[in-house]
């Protein structure tokens, strides 16, 4: 008899997400992409993100119920969900979940195996724990923001990818999955304190090692990987677009110079006294043709050079298109689930969950009839 393929390696795992914005929803989306049954508990007043819920990709592959946590019986309904869950994810300031009656102690009283994931910027303790903040402040304190950008300009705002999602969401997901492994082995759940400051600091481990070894200067634009090196960085092209260069190793560097017709600089790779001259020569070459013309020159080579694409261009790049790195679901172009699995493939199963749209189904599937009280 044929069997239905699993919808990802976390198929059968139940997750409660207490609605928030930023890294919490993204972490829950990743768990949902991996096959978990993620139930998002939305607020009656609607989502915190000021976009149409139909376009909020971070809510794909999830289901939504609406619970008023400030109303009588609201917290009890969350605890009913927690009693049937493997993982709970919340992103409140420290102490808020406890005041609402849905903190770790209350949840573990109902479900000792529950993994309780807490997503914050500053963490659950420390002088700044009660303070508000956003990605840029978190990465500023870790030293990470100060590594980015030209030395003679203020550090740029690198979107919110480095702190919220790399240092935040991804560390929360690793943490709750490790804790889930422990809970299934021992029967004991625990609290995972995922702080963006901790995760972002952890991301810089290699750089701290290089600095300790004398191979990294603690200032911008003076190092191999921060724009200080003329063969690792970006250059403007004739049409005002850009090429990215990462020709670090000798053979890649030699190919890079040959394709630019700059072989006179073969000995400049390790000669810092010639880097300024090399940078000027490379910049002049790139300014002589358009981005797409240069992309054609470097295509099929190991020069480690690539065009800098926009968000709308990226899905159409031949390599990304061939891999299906982006996908379309209900007319919405979006990154496909990652990473990939040979035995339990993942997919975009459903579009963004509409607030409250799945209350009846979740009440039935999770055996939590109390969700239907007051639900129209």
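^ Assign residues to that structure.
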């Amino acid at each position: 008899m044929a069997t239905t393929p699993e919808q990802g390696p976390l198929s059968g795992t139940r997750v409660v997400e207490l609605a928030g914005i930023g890294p919490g929803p993204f972490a829950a989306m990743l768990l949902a992409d991996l096959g978990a049954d993620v139930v998002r508990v939305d607020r009656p007043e609607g989502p915190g993100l000021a976009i149409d819920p139909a376009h909020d990709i971070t809510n794909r592959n999830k289901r939504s119920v609406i619970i008023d946590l400030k109303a009588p019986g609201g917290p009890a309904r969350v605890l009913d969900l927690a009693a049937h869950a493997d993982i709970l994810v919340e992103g409140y300031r420290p102490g808020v979940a406890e005041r609402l009656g849905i903190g770790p102690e209350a949840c573990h009283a109902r479900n000792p195996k529950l993994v309780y994931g807490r997503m914050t910027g500053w963490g659950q303790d420390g002088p700044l724990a009660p303070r508000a903040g956003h990605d840029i402040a978190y990465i500023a304190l870790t030293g990470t923001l100060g590594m980015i950008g030209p030395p003679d300009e203020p550090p740029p705002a690198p979107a919110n990818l480095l702190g919220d999602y790399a240092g935040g969401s991804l560390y929360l997901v690793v943490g709750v999955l490790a804790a889930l492994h422990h809970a299934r082995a021992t029967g004991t759940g625990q609290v995972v304190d995922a702080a963006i400051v901790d995760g972002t600091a952890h991301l810089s481990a290699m750089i701290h090692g290089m600095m300790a070894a004398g191979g990294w200067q603690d200032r911008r634009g003076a190092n191999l990987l921060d724009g200080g090196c003329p063969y690792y960085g970006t250059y403007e092209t004739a049409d005002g677009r850009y090429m990215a260069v990462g020709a670090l190793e000798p053979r890649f560097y030699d190919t890079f110079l040959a394709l630019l017709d700059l072989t006179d600089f073969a000995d400049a790779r390790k000669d810092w006294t010639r880097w300024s001259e090399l940078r000027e020569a490379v910049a002049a070459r790139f300014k002589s043709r358009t981005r797409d013309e240069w992309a054609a020159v470097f295509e099929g080579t190991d020069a480690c050079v690539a065009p800098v694409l926009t968000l709308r261009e990226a899905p159409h790049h031949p390599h990304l298109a061939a891999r299906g790195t982006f996908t379309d679901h209900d007319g919405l172009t979006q990154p496909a689930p990652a990473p990939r699995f040979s035995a339990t493939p993942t997919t975009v199963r459903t579009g963004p969950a509409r607030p409250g749209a799945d209350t009846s189904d979740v009440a039935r599937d999770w055996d939590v009839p109390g969700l239907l009280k007051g639900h129209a």
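The longest helix spans residues 161-186.
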